[in-house]
């Protein structure tokens, strides 16, 4: 069997599915090779999408024409907007999802894409000729040719599962591993490393005493992740909160001698911001308890995920400790928690397009680049899919800048700074958070999707319509006046100073205590029919209010972003001999040679390269 494609995507996780769908939608003939077709975009760990900064990423993927937001909406069990008590720059949507439905919805989208073929198999080798990848070989001896390859094997690269002193090969528990690729890539000079992640036990909800637990309901105001008019649940499932205690900690400590984290069995570095329960007990010895969340796995299952209790301790220790947690005294488990070690490839070996600097037309996306999280993987996937297609069309790659998207921050951090532990996105990683809000991702990225040809007709129509309404609303705010008779009763109720004469609506809106939706109700706004656009009017009004109230901060960040962006516009000649620039520090020359930054801006963000080094580069380049 020997078939040819434009692009082959190796791996059917979140990165692989977004990559395949984007490339196929753009017009490339795509082959998606996955070990198990029934687990496309499988939620291997917690059954949730979004969260701090991650929710912004899902909305950006959607605005760019991806599918993660659509699938999240259609499989949603519960919605919450996190950080509402803080400023809008860090508001972050999060959704619990039906794990099975999430995968099913993704499979529907993949199979509905006429340019995507699926092959269930395990790739164990690449076909490389004259420095370029031209195809793959599989375990069943199938050979497929392609003009570009996207590698998204997640934790399956030589995956090793640990439960106490027991370990076994696997990309996920009870699933096979991917072998051969790492060894081959190392022969071509690509560096690899090992990282570690973990997951908690899964609990039988029938054995949980929910009556004694703290219930955590979803928001009454359910928001979409997609900017399209997707379906949302009519009801929501609750999560539940419980805590560990001193007794639980003492039981867990009994298993430390058999813990692969502490007896030297695990060599890979684990995620700092998603530690195991063992790490929490050791790192925070002064704490007598740690918060745990019991999260439902689906509408039609009793399975629950115990968030905050990741562990690789022996099964009997895990089980004994859980039975001392409030509400879990009679708990039964479906499967234990475990840790998994896997291969990754330091992403400083990639261009910002996610193409390898060493092997032409080979792209890397997802956990193989040292990240953790479905959202980070999906973001890399869609960008790799787009850029692989653009290269085949002999077009410039799409490189999102740090002021344009969290996706831009993510990829720039990876290829410029690299990773020494699993990378997780936070709002604190972005310099321009007020520009990268979850409410304006479509304003930032949908025009790019339209230019690419990735946006559907429905998305284009919706975006144009929404932009038109935004423009009209802003005109109303800046041109319409409100009188004391119209406003003062409302203002008194808000403990706000009353008006003595007519003023523009925008001037009243700038008061912190005044809400735009209330303000519009005080004047005649029949110029626009909000009811026709009910599905996004509330969010749109909120977005316009944010831009008005935080206008000064937004303007300041735009100016700073423009200034820094000029450095990203200055390209560094690939043939430059850094060793000849003796005025650059020794460390600076070493880092420039190692990471080969494409622009002055990228060089300036590399640790160890000083401002004076950048000045020398600018002088050398006549700037």
Structure description:
The chain is α+β, with helices and mostly antiparallel strands and 623 residues long. Among the domains are: 137 residues, Elongation Factor Tu (Ef-tu), domain 3 (Beta Barrel); 94 residues, Arc Repressor Mutant, subunit A (Orthogonal Bundle), CATH 1.10.10.1800; 52 residues, DNA polymerase, domain 1 (Orthogonal Bundle). Helix content is 35%, strand content 18%. The chain contains 20 helices and 22 strands. The strands form 5 sheets. Strands 1, 2, 6, 7, 8, 9 and 20 form a 7-stranded mixed β-sheet that branches. Helix 6 packs antiparallel against helix 8. It is globular and about 80 Å long.
Count of distinct strands: 22
Q: How large a portion of the residues is in β-strands, by DSSP E?
A: 15-25%
| Helix percentage | 25-40%
At CATH level 2, the architecture of the domain at 202-338 is Beta Barrel
Query: What multimeric state do the chains show?
Result: single chain
The largest pleated sheet is described as:
7 strands, mixed
- Mean pLDDT across the residues is 92
Rg value? 26 Å
Query: What would the CATH topology of the domain at 202-338 be?
Result: Elongation Factor Tu (Ef-tu), domain 3
CA-CA gap between termini? 55 Å
Specify the overall morphology. Answer: globular
What's the helix count? 20
Q: What's the level 1 CATH class of the domain at 202-338?
A: Mainly Beta
Could you list the spans in which at least 5 consecutive residues all have pLDDT below 50?
A: 531-535
Summing up helix and strand content along with how strands pair, one would put the structural category as alpha+beta
């Amino acid at each position: 069997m020997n078939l040819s494609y434009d692009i082959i995507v190796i791996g059917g996780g979140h990165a692989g599915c977004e990559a395949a769908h984007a490339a196929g939608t753009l017009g490339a003939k795509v082959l998606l090779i996955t070990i198990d077709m029934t687990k496309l975009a499988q939620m291997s760990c917690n059954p949730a999408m979004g969260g701090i900064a991650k929710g912004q990423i899902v909305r950006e993927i959607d605005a760019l024409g991806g599918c993660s937001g659509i699938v999240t909406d259609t499989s949603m069990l519960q919605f919450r907007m996190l950080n509402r008590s803080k400023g809008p720059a860090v508001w972050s949507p999060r959704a619990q999802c039906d794990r099975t439905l999430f995968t099913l919805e993704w499979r529907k989208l993949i199979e509905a894409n006429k340019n995507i073929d699926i092959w269930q198999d395990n790739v164990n080798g690449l076909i490389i000729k004259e420095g370029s990848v031209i195809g793959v070989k599989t375990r069943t001896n199938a050979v497929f040719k392609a003009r570009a390859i996207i590698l998204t094997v997640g934790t399956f690269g030589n995956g090793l599962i640990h439960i106490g002193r027991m370990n076994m090969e696997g990309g996920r528990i009870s699933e096979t591993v991917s072998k051969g690729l790492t060894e081959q890539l190392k022969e071509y000079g690509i560096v690899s490393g090992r990282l570690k992640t973990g997951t908690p036990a899964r609990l039988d909800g029938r054995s949980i005493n929910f009556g004694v637990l703290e219930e955590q309901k979803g928001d009454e105001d359910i928001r979409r992740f997609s900017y399209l008019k997707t379906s949302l649940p009519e009801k929501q499932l609750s999560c539940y909160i419980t805590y560990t205690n001193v007794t639980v900690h003492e039981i867990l400590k009994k298993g430390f001698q058999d813990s692969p984290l502490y007896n030297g069995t695990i060599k890979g570095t684990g995620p700092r911001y998603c530690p195991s329960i063992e790490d929490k007990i050791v790192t925070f010895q002064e704490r007598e308890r740690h918060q745990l969340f019991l999260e439902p796995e689906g509408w039609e299952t009793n399975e629950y995920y115990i968030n905050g209790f990741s562990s690789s301790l022996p099964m009997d220790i895990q089980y004994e400790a859980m039975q001392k947690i409030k509400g879990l005294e009679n708990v039964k488990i479906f499967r234990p928690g475990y840790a998994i070690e896997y291969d990754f490839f330091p992403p400083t070996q990639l261009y910002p397009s996610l193409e390898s600097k060493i092997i032409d037309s080979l792209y890397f996306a997802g956990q193989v680049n040292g990240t953790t999280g479905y959202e980070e993987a999906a973001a890399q996937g869609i960008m790799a899919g787009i850029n692989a297609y653009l290269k085949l069309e002999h077009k410039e790659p799409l490189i999102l800048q740090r002021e344009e998207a969290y996706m831009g921050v993510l990829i720039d951090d990876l290829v410029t700074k690299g990773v020494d532990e699993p990378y997780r996105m936070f709002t604190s990683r972005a310099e321009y958070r007020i520009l990268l809000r979850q409410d304006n991702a479509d304003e930032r990225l949908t025009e790019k999707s339209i230019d690419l040809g990735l946006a559907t007709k429905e998305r284009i129509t919706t975006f144009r319509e929404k932009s038109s309404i935004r423009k009209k609303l802003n005109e109303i705010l800046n041109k319409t006046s409100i009188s004391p008779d119209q406003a003062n009763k409302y203002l008194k109720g808000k403990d706000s100073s009353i008006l003595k004469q007519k003023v523009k609506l925008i001037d009243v809106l700038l008061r912190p205590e005044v809400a735009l939706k209330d303000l519009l109700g005080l004047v005649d706004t029949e110029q626009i029919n909000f009811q026709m656009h009910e599905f996004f009017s509330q969010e749109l009004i909120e977005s316009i209010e944010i831009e008005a109230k935080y206008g000064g901060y937004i303007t300041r960040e735009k100016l700073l972003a423009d200034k820094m962006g000029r450095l990203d516009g200055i390209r560094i000649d690939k043939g430059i001999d850094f060793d000849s620039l003796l005025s650059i520090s020794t460390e600076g020359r070493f880092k420039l040679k190692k990471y080969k930054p494409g622009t002055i801006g990228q060089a300036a963000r590399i640790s160890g390269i000083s401002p004076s080094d950048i000045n020398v580069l600018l002088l050398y380049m006549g700037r």
